[in-house]
Amino acid sequence: MIAALAVMAMAPNHFYDEIKVYLACLEQGLPADMNTRDYQARLQIYNAAAARCQQQRQAAIATAVKERKPDVSPEQARQQAAQIIDDLSPAAKNYGN
């Protein structure tokens, strides 16, 4: 639901282009058998990949702030974009725990 609100609050074209760049960066650090790993292993692997992709994360968030709708504050846009990105983490879904 938060992701849906964020989609409505931001101009999707450039933000989603930046998200794709972030996802491509993440993918480079994730093993093909990620889903077969236990929760703790998935979380550790994901966090290591995400740490290497901080520049791409910040670029996506900056784009969301820059292209926000007039009725959305910079902080709201920043929080919404960060939430979309954070929802990618295994911790957001707490698989099996």
Helical element count?
Answer: 6
- Termini separation (Å)? 22 Å
Which percent range fits the helix content? Answer: over 70%
User: What string gives the helices and strands in order?
Assistant: HHHHHH
The overall pLDDT, averaged over residues, is: 84
What gross morphology would you assign? elongated
Count of distinct strands: 0
β-strand amount? under 5%
- Low-pLDDT stretches are 1-8
Q: What structural class is derived from the secondary structure elements?
A: mainly alpha
**Rg estimate, integer Å:** 14 Å
For the largest beta-sheet, the strand count, sense and barrel status come to:
none
Which descriptors apply to this entry?
single chain, 97 residues
In short:
By secondary structure, this protein is mainly α. The chain is 71% helix and 0% strand.
